Amino acid sequence: MNDEHIVSSFDRDLAELNQMVARLGGLAEQQFAAAIDALENRNASSIETIVSNDAELDQLEKDLNDRAIEVIATRGPMATDLRRILSAVKIAAVLERVGDYAKNIAKRSLVIISDETNRSDTISVGRIADIVQGMLREALDAYATANADLAMEVWERDQEVDELYTSLHRDLLGVIAKGAEEASVSSHFLFIAKNIERIGDHTTAVAEQVYFQVHGEMPSEERPKANAISEASDIED
Predict the structure, then answer these.
(1) Are 200 and 154 in contact (CB under 8 A)?
(2) Which of 1, 35, 136, 181 sits CB 3.0–4.6 Å from 105 for a disulfide?
(3) Percent of residues in the chain assigned helix, strand, coil, to nearest 5
(4) Could you give the angle at which helices 126-145 and 2-40 cross, rounded to 10 degrees?
């Protein structure tokens, strides 16, 4: 009876960690969507909220890490149970980073809104953002349902993001090289596009953790990459 009680308590611990990941994931999705909306609609009024909300993501990740350490120390989990805890910790770190990128997008969007003199619909990151938002949503669904097949579908879609980013990167560099009036704004679009591409990369890391949690090993194949461009990640405090 005592063993049953211990198992039940441990199940509750794991469920609590899953709920914390879900909260982190929901807030990361919300931050990313809000940042893209602020950019596309030139809505400067929402940017301060996006930036300030990043602190909540940071705190949630810290709380999850503390809780995970406590569970490991008191329960001594092994095998599948330990993988579930480690996956939660690693995914939490990824989601916190997604929040950082969303904050960066919002900050650069504010500069674009302030500086652009002639809005150009040709300089758009909307298509890439839509794909990455879908990937993030599906990766979190895969985690919630322990669906390794769905996770691998997300993992494979990152190549499409890389291809679109490479094309947009080339177009934006062309505008900057011409020294046109839009060059300064285009440079901020360039960093925003890179931030979105990096969110896609981090989303595949969530997918890999789901696969690891289910199968006990990382995917055997190397993640497909169509992008050979290697700028700085543009994470700022």
Answers:
(1) no
(2) 35
(3) 80, 0, 20
(4) 170
Instruction: Output Rg (C-alpha) for the chain, integer angstroms.
Output: 20
In the chain, where the domains are located: 2-215
For 49, how many CA atoms within 13 A lie in the half-sphere containing its CB? 13
SS3 41: coil
CA distances to 45, 195, 229, 232 from 176, in Å: 28, 18, 17, 18
| Residue 147, Ramachandran bin (φ over 0: left; ψ between -120 and 50: alpha; else beta) | beta
CA distance 177 to 80: 53
| pLDDT tens digits for range 27-72 | 999 999 999 999 999 999 999 999 999 999 999 999 999 999 999 9
- Note whether 84 and 14 are within 8 A (CB): yes
- Both structure tokens of 231: 């700028």
Query: pTM of the entire structure?
Result: 0.88
Q: If we measure between CA atoms, which residue out of 28, 95, 97, 139 comes closest to residue 237?
A: 97
* Per-residue pLDDT tens digits for 99-140: 999 999 999 999 998 887 766 655 578 899 999 999 999 999
Cβ 154 vs Cβ 139: under 8 Å: yes
Contacts of 100 (CB under 8 A, 6+ apart): 54, 235, 236
